């Protein structure tokens, strides 16, 4: 049985959008909707969507442009293109921009649901939320209990935002995460760069106080990297 996910449907045709959304809800998924490219991009970047179903020809911004922006801000977010364009050149364009799959209209809802499940199974963002972290320096964090233990055994309580930040860093092992990405994905703040605010730095500083300086490493020019045990 597929695990329910949060899926964003970006489609300007009301009838098609309604049919796709109804099918996804019947399959147990939580569904968000957008009727144009600008609204779709905003929701893709600000929401907790696990997958985007993205039309190509839409008002305001087309799907290829939206896909390119998604790939820049959320590189691992799964995206399936929905389009009436079925030529090889159009499919190559969508896939080369970063689409995970390409469904040509008209399509059966049964096939679409199968493609959604297949893409989610192989997506790096599909994993269950991290509940605990053991750090290389000896500290640990129980995210379910919002509890931190420093290397010397000193206990501290984690705020909800600190838990979200740790969970996001832990979901991307071995990758330094830029401040801008953390602002967008953890704080849901867009339109402002990490260099313009100390929000992320302040939260990282508090976590280092609770978990030790070695828990989160600053990678110059790239961002923050979690120093967790494999």
Structure write-up:
The chain has 2 domains: 6-122, Rossmann fold; 132-226, Winged helix-like DNA-binding domain superfamily/Winged helix DNA-binding domain (Arc Repressor Mutant, subunit A). Helices cover 39% and strands 19% of the residues. It has helices spanning 14-26, 37-46, 63-73, 88-97, 109-122, 160-170, 179-185, 199-211, and strands at residues 6-10, 30-34, 51-55, 79-83, 101-104, 132-134, 140-142, 147-149, 155-157, 216-219, 223-226. Helix 2 runs parallel beside helix 3.
| Contiguous uncertain segments of 5+ residues | none
Radius of gyration computed on alpha carbons: 20 Å
Q: Main β-sheet, in a few words? A: 5 strands, parallel
Number of helices: 8
CATH superfamily of the largest domain: Response regulator
Q: Approximately what portion of the residues adopt beta-strand conformation?
A: 15-25%
Average pLDDT metric: 84
Estimated helix fraction = 25-40%
Structurally, the number of domains stands at 2
Categorize the overall geometry: elongated
CATH top level of the largest domain is: Alpha Beta
CATH architecture type of the largest domain: 3-Layer(aba) Sandwich
CATH topology-level name of the largest domain: Rossmann fold
Strand order of the largest sheet: 2-1-3-4-5
Supply the helix-strand structural class: alpha/beta
Terminal CA distance reads: 29 Å
Name the helix and strand elements from N-terminus to C-terminus, one letter apiece. Answer: EHEHEHEHEHEEEEHHHEE
Q: Give me the count of strands.
A: 11
């Amino acid at each position: 049985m597929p695990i329910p996910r949060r899926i964003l449907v970006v489609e300007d045709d009301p009838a098609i959008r309604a049919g796709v959304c109804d099918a996804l809800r019947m399959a147990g998924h939580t569904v968000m909707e957008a009727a144009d490219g600008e609204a779709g991009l905003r929701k893709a970047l600000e929401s907790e969507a696990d997958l985007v179903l993205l039309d190509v020809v839409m008002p305001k911004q087309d799907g290829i442009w939206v896909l390119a922006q998604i790939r820049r801000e959320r590189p691992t977010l799964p995206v399936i293109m929905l389009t009436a364009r079925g030529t090889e050149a159009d499919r190559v364009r969508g896939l080369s921009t970063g689409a995970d799959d390409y469904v040509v209209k008209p399509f059966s809802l049964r096939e679409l649901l199968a493609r959604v499940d297949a893409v989610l199974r192989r997506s790096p963002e599909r994993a269950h939320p991290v509940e605990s972290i053991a750090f290389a320096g000896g500290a640990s964090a129980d995210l379910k209990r919002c509890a931190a233990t420093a290397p010397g055994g000193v206990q501290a309580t984690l705020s909800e935002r600190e838990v979200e930040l740790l969970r996001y860093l832990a979901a991307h092992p071995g990758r330094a995460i830029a401040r801008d990405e953390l602002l967008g994905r953890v704080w849901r703040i867009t339109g402002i760069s990490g260099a313009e605010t100390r929000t992320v730095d302040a939260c990282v500083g508090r976590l280092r106080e609770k978990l030790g300086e070695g828990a989160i490493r600053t990678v110059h020019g790239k961002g923050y990297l979690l120093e967790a045990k494999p």
